[in-house]
Structures are given as C-alpha cells and as structure tokens.
Amino acid sequence: MSEHDDNVENEWSDAITEPLEAAHSSGRLAWPRSQPAPPRDRFRSLSRRLLDDLRKPRPVQSRDLVVLVPGLLIGGLLVGLLVAAVAPSLFSALYTRFTGIPPHQSVAHHATTTHPGATPTQPATATPVPSVEGAFLTRDTATQGNWSGVYGQAGSVIIGVSDGGQQLPAGVQVAPTNASPYNWADSTDDPRALQQDTTGATRIAACWYAADTFSVAITIPEGQTYKMAVYVLDWDRLQRAEDLRILNTATGKTLNTQTLTSFVNGVYLVWRVRGQITLQVTNHTGPINAVVSGIFFSPV
Fold first, then answer.
1. Backbone phi, then psi, for 8, in 5-degree steps?
2. What integer pLDDT is reported at residue 118 of this predicted model?
3. CB–CB of 210/244 below 8 Å?
4. Within 10 A of 272 (CB to CB), how many other CB atoms are there?
5. 8 Å CB contact between 284 and 220
6. CA 97 to CA 4: how far, in whole Å?
7. Quick one: pLDDT at residue 256?
8. Is 266 in contact with 231 (CB distance < 8 Å)?
9. Alpha helices, DSSP H only, in the chain?
10. pLDDT on residue 22
C-alpha cells in the first residue's frame, strides 16, 4: 500500500461522521471506499481517545496514594469543620421551625468587682484596758440606806461603825485624808441611815466630813475591777452641795466629776473603777461642810 493510501486510511479511522445507508458485507454500516473520506473532526477525535483511555484499566501506583491519602484527610477535616460550624445554627433553626420555641440562650454574667476605697480599711484592733479607770455609771436615789443585797457584795466601808466598819475585797485599801468622822445617830430607824451590816438589824447615820475638801485614797490591785458606790447623805437637812471627783492618783488627772445640790434623802453615785484612784469631795456652800457616809464595792 502506498503512502497516499495510508493517509487515506488514517483519515478514515479518525473520522467520526454520519455513515451512509449502504450495507457492508459484514452487515455493518460503512462509508463507500470509492468515495473520498469526509474532512476530519479533530475535537471529536481527541474526545474518542480520552474516552478510550478512561475505559482502559490502570493499576494504582504508590505515588497516587501519596497524593490521594493526604487529600482525603484534608478534605475530611474541612468537611468536619464546616459541619461543626453550621450544625448548631442549623439545629437551632430547625428546632425553632418545628416547635415554635426559641432555643435557650445563656445570659452572660458579669462579675462584680469591688473597688477598694481611697484609704484602705485597717483591721480592727482590741482596745487596751486602761490601768486606771473611773468611769461613771449611774445615780441611785431610791435605795437610801438599804444597801444590803444591792451594793457591797464584794466589800464595804460603813462610816461610824467602830467594830467591822470596813469589810474590803482582798488587796483593796481605802484611806481618808483631811477627813474627820462624825456620828449623827448611832442607832435609828430612819430608812435614810445606812444598815450597819448585811442583816439590816440596826442602822447608823454617820459621815466623814471637812469644811472645805477632803480625799480618800483607794488602791485596787492590778487585774481587779469593781463597781464602786459612794453614799452621800444630808442628814440634818442643811442644803449641802458638793462635787465628787475621781482622780488618777499617780497623775492627778480628773477622770470624772459629779455635782450634788440636793441629797437630803440620800443618793448613791456609782463608778466602774480600777487601779490607784482618789475620791475627792469638795464643799460648795462655804460654812456648810462636805460629807460622805459609805463606800461599797461590787463585782462588775
């Protein structure tokens, strides 16, 4: 066969055209060999070759796996991320769509921050107990001479009683200065007069006195504190008036002052005391003297 015939044969084999309605000896439709082949359609020829290549079985090469496996992993990861991003919104939309109830939405809780003040708060510290104290508590005008069971549970000083007039707590000392004793009545039923002891069987009206001023030094051992009641009585109704001060014996500082202008029926002045103190009694009315009739100590 000549070169021309080979070219004609190739053109016939590459051509994809409509066949003539002529019967071939093998029963298949074909172009008559006596007629020239139609012009080649190169695009359709390339398509036929590609289809033929796809139909041919080809073994999987190792380099294909190197490319395929990472591609599958990356693709799966991207799909998972997409599903994770879309699924909550999709679920919420579907839930609201079918139930009509909006999904629960959490409320953000904002922590409250306490801002410290400009000046930091100092921790509380215990107030130290003073070594010397003379804090006033109360006045009592109702008890009169009936002190037993009310005052003096720890000890007492009943002025004018010759035997056992002082029954003081252990370690406590009471010493008057510039004061003179005087008895108005050694025995009386007047309720203003002090009971001579806790039984209350007898009473006495007596006092320490001074024309101007006198003092009573009182020593209380360290660690002890008492309620001290001082009984003052204007027995003979001379309209006495006086000041009673509690002083710090060591420094002379006045811790408390009480003024009496009428005490005909008797009055108790009550302080909380500790340490070494001085009771100072000062007359207000010139020729009329200052007086004190009794001192009583009770537990705090």
1. -65, -40
2. 57
3. no
4. 15
5. no
6. 76
7. 98
8. yes
9. 3-14, 42-55, 62-99
10. 45
Write down the residue that tokens 């007039």 correspond to.
165
Q: Please, which residues bridge with residue 294 across strands?
A: 158, 231
Looking at residue 31, its amino acid is W
Which regions of the chain does DSSP assign to beta strands (E)? 133-140, 155-158, 166-167, 173-177, 180-185, 194-195, 203-210, 213-219, 226-232, 242-248, 254-260, 267-274, 276-283, 290-292, 294-299
| Cα–Cα distance, 212 to 289 (Å, whole number) | 6
Residues in the chain with pLDDT values less than 70? 1-47, 50, 53-68, 86-87, 90-91, 93-127, 163-164
- DSSP for residue 81: H
**CA 234-237-240 angle, 5° bins:** 55
The amino acid sitting at 200 is: G
Q: So what's the pLDDT on residue 16?
A: 46
pLDDT at 71: 77
Cβ–Cβ < 8 Å for 217, 177: yes
Among candidate residues 167, 145, 104, the one with its CA nearest the CA of residue 268: 145
pLDDT digits (tens, 9 = 90+) for 113-146: 555 555 666 666 666 778 999 999 999 999 999 9
Pairing of β 254-260 and β 242-248: antiparallel
Instruction: Give the C-alpha separation, 283 to 285, whole Å.
Output: 6
